[in-house]
Amino acid sequence: MITCKGRAELLKMERATWIVQQTLADCVAACRPGVTTEEIDRIAADGIRKRGGKAAFPGYRGYPKTVCSSVNDEVVHGIPTSKRKLRDGDIVGIDLGVIVDGYFGDAARTAVVGEVPAPVAELVRQTWLALVAGVSAVRVGGRIGDIGAAVEAVANEKGFGVVREYVGHGIGTALHEEPQVPNYGPAGKGERIREGMTLAIEPMFNLGTARVRLGPDGWTVRTADGKPSAHFEHTVVATADGPVVLGFGRYTSDGLVTGVPDETEYPVPAASPRGEPAETPGESRV
Question: How many Å from the N-terminal Cα to the C-terminal Cα in the chain?
């Protein structure tokens, strides 16, 4: 069943997603050569706790960690480990969820470690632009297929593979709610978008084939050809004025700001040079 949220519920989701975005900033800042994905997971757990949230992923369907950290050819759901050290030229997708007062926020970013080949940098850049396109397609009265068509158009222009087996989703009092939000069209199909619908939109693009395979741990999804993959995600609410991306202070008790935050609006990392979370969440902008 698809649920539409009221203002009180959305303010809780805004707070949860704010914690997600602030903590993701800490994690991205820590993505440097020699850091393990286990260290990034610890930074996320500390950041969520210090900001007053509850991590959404531990124990979800048996998942063991705070974040999903997916490196290079890992598409989604990579499990952090002390054995996986980041190296110059890696990319790492970090997916994170938080609960506040029973409501969820969910977001993801792909971090670049040092210098990466130009085609990989372009993959990361275009996946983020596909997120912007997908969010921009959220219109009350439109269809869920409009979102996927907008995302897919970005991939098709650049020749990237669009992952089809894993999709975005509704979100609210559960991490995954109806409807599913595919990263492909056609436009004009699927559920009607209604005011108050909350959606987690999350493009996943591969540098090569769209095909993926599930690893032996039962969680980690990899590209079938071993080429890199990138992943970005926002939690979004559909309003009569347009889409509002939660977690950026754009949805408040006093009003809302529609549209998609640009790169300068992502939180400044509240982390020290060694990647340890600061005591006070950073609120300045890049």
Answer: 39
